[in-house]
Each structure stands twice: as structure tokens, then as C-alpha cells.
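Folding Problem: From Residues to Backbone Shape
Fields: amino acid sequence; protein C-alpha cells
RECORD BEGINS BELOW THIS LINE
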Amino acid sequence: MLLRTSTTGFRTAAPRRGGFVIVAVLLVIAVLTLAAYQYSTLMDAEYLAAQRMRKAAEARVLADAGVHYAVAMLADPDALTVTLNDNPFDNPKAFQGVLVKEADSPRATGKFSLMAPDYANVSQTGVVPMRFGVTDEASKLNVNALYAADSSGQVLHDALMKLPNMTDDAAWCIVDWVDPNDEPSAAGAESQYYSALTPPYQCKNAPLDTVEELLLIKGVTPALLYGTDRNRNGKTDPGEDDGYGSFSAGWAAYLTVYSRERNVDSEGAKRININGNDLATLNADLTAVLGEELTAFLLVYRLYGPTNPTAPPAKGPPARPGTPAQMTAAVQRAIQAGTAPRTRLPSLFALMEATVTVAGSNPRQGSTTHKSPLKADAADAELLGKLLDKCTTSANAELPARVNANTAPREVLMALPGMTDADADLIISKRPTYLNGDAPDPAYSTVAWLVTTGGLKPTAMAALERFVTARTQVYRVTSVGHFDEAGPIARVESVIDVNQGKPRIAYYRDLTDLGRVMDPRTVGQ
């Protein structure tokens, strides 16, 4: 024991410390342990967050893979015909749960599914059924093409007025937005209105670039454009009904700016312009695809024009029924004489019920009358289909985008000029259904079926021809990236223009932030 001397001279013992050092060490160890635990907890949280971010990024990559897969399937004619069975609209075998990343665990197995809303079969509860497929952009009204078809804007206005919840003011405002002048319609709006807004901007006075651009136009609201499914998840969520009381798809389901139609045949070759002036070339080209009789009738129509049943009879002997050989002879005489056609054919369907009167080769010979070899029945469906596929009345390389009668919803069909309720219902009842990968009949590859089996009159089709088609070049794709079990889901939307085998993505948007779409793993269960 250590002793020390006090002031009195006595030695005393040093005070005891009582294990203070040990307690201090234990406190330090406890604090360090808690700090290590907190650090470990934070690192676990960071690890889990990093894992979630990685999985979310992986889901996004899976969704992008679906877009590129769709490009490959849709732009390759062989893949479209063989793999997709000419049915990209409802094909779960090709588009549901396509494996991208194989793994031992279902939670790590990555897939994508291509999904499209089926607005024609919305349930009473407002849930939109989902198909495993793509959406046909040609099934919608192309705002720019409708204005191009009639620069007065009346055709576009009248078509828009057929859409649900459309108002006259909104329709004319849309016309004013795309027309090239700055003079407002009676119910429309131009730059004078938009420049007074906060912030101010100018009326575009040019074609739309996107459907979303409609939101800049007076009278167009998100509720009108997107209906009761603004986050596009296939159902009406709280706050989305906006007083509609029932499901509304919105105008975006019926409008587009992306559809295109090149003036080529089913094999990608340039169509024959039957309104050309080189009679010899026309005769040779048309005979190769249509045969002699229809070619001869088409050319005498161009040479003499259709017979006017109300015109007074011509002088001389009365006209008598002619033969195909006489038509062919009349065409050959015109070719040898260098005669130029004098009549333009307004529509291919104008040939179906036409009669042509051909003058004799000399004054003593009477005229002959010739009836069209085309009949509005199934017997001539193949010949009429060839005419519509191989021939055109326009010299333009690209036609104003038309509506695909095979896929358009009833609302879009009813918006076409001259369409009646009975005609629209008949078309829907007769056209292909595209269910579960079923292949459509080849007869539906042109709009010939609308007359031969669809019940429309040739005169009605002659008026509709510049607005309807049976072909598609542009598709809208919603690709959902997901895992086999649990995990995040990503979805992206794109518009793909197959562009005759040289595809391009005309539009792309990540929709993941809008919320989860209907789970592709449970659709159909």
C-alpha cells in the first residue's frame, strides 16, 4: 500500500478509485457497439434501397426489351405472318410473359408483356380488360389527315363532333389550331385568345406533333382527353371520375397523329396509278394484274367516261350491248392513235356499277355499251381485292392516313363521313375478331370485303374510300417489365412505325410514375 506523509508527520493511505477505469471502458465499448449497430442498420437500409433501385432499373430494361421485341416482330413480314399469325392485336402466346432473364429464383426471373386496353368490353365496374397485344394507330382518327382531306376544316369538325363529350366550341378550336391561318372560326380561337393567357403563347396553325398537344387548345381538358383513366392503368381510380358517372376512355383513345399509309401494294411495290396518261403502259401493267376484261373496261372508262343515263340519246343507230373483245379493240385503236384518256377515275369503287358507251370505229357503226365486269358479291371478291391492292387513283407516294375498318372502334367508324349506325354495326359484326392469336382471313387484307360481304353499297364505298383502309403501318405498344414473382413493375409506351421494314420509334414515354398497370401475371386468371 502506498503511503504519503501528512502535514502532521503521519503517513496515510491513498484513496481507492473503485474500478472507474473498467466502467469507462465498458461505456466506451457500449457506445461503439451502438454506433456499429446503427451503422450496420443504415448499411442494411442502403443495401435494400440499392437492391430496390436495381430491381426497378432492371424492370425498366425489361420493359424496353419489350419495345424492341415488338419492333422486330412488327417490322419483319415473315415474323408478322409466321410468329404472330397476322394477329398482333390479341396474341398471348407471343406477347405474354416473354422471358428475358432466366434465373434460379422466380423473384429474379425477368420477363415482359405487351398489353393493350380493350375499350369495347369495359365492365360495369369500370375495369378495362387487357389484351396481350398492341394497339392499331390506324384504328383512330388522324387529326392532321382529316384536315388535309378538306382544308375548310368541315370534315375534321364533323368527325370530331361524333366523339363522346365533344362540344362544338372544342371541335372548332381544334380546327383553328391546325389550320394555317390566324382567323378564328365562329366558335374557335386563334392567337388573339392564347396570347391573353398567363403565360401567353401563340396558336400553332400547323399540324399536331403529339396527341398531348391538344391540352394547349381552348376547351380541351385532361378529363376530356384521357377520360376516367388518366393514369392509364385500366380502371377508374378515386378522383378520376370527374362526375362522369361511368367509365370514359377519353378522346385520346380515338385520336392520333402518328398513323401513316404509303401508296404501295401488299408486297411493298409502287401501285399502278390508273389516272396516268400513258395508255399503252397502263394497258400492259393493268393486264398483268387484273386480266384483259377488267383492264379494257377500266381504260374505256378513262377514254369515254361513264354513260349518263339521263343524257339525250345520240344521233344514229341505238347503242347495242358490246363484248369484251370490242372493248379491247377500242383500247388498241386509241393506243395506236395516241389518244389520251379524258376522264379521271374518282374512286376504284366507281367501276363497280358503271356502264360505258363506246363509239363505233366509223360513223356507220353504232355505239356499244359495256357493263362493269365487277359485281358487288363474294364471287368477285378476289378480283376486286387485286384492284384495290395493286391500283390507286393518286400519284402521291403517301396517302392521307385512313382508318382501318378491321380494327376501328364503333365511335371512330361513326365519325367517318356518311357512316350510318346500321353500316357501323354491320361492319363490326362481319369483320375479323382477332381473338387469342387467331389469324384473319386473307379476304380482309383490303376493304373489298366491305362491299362483297360487309353489306355496304359500292356508291357508299366510293364516298368512303379516301377515309377507310384495311392496312396498318403504325402500332402503339405498352410494354410491362416484371418478374416471375413479386418485385417492381415498369411500363413504357411507344409508337412504332414499321416503315416498310425500316422501323422507327415515333413516340416513347415512361409511364411507370403513373402507377402500376393491371398485373400481367394475373390477367386472365
User: Anything to note?
Assistant: Residues 272-392 form one domain. The CA atoms of residues 191 and 197 lie 10 Å apart. The chain has a mean pLDDT of 89. The longest strand covers residues 474-483.
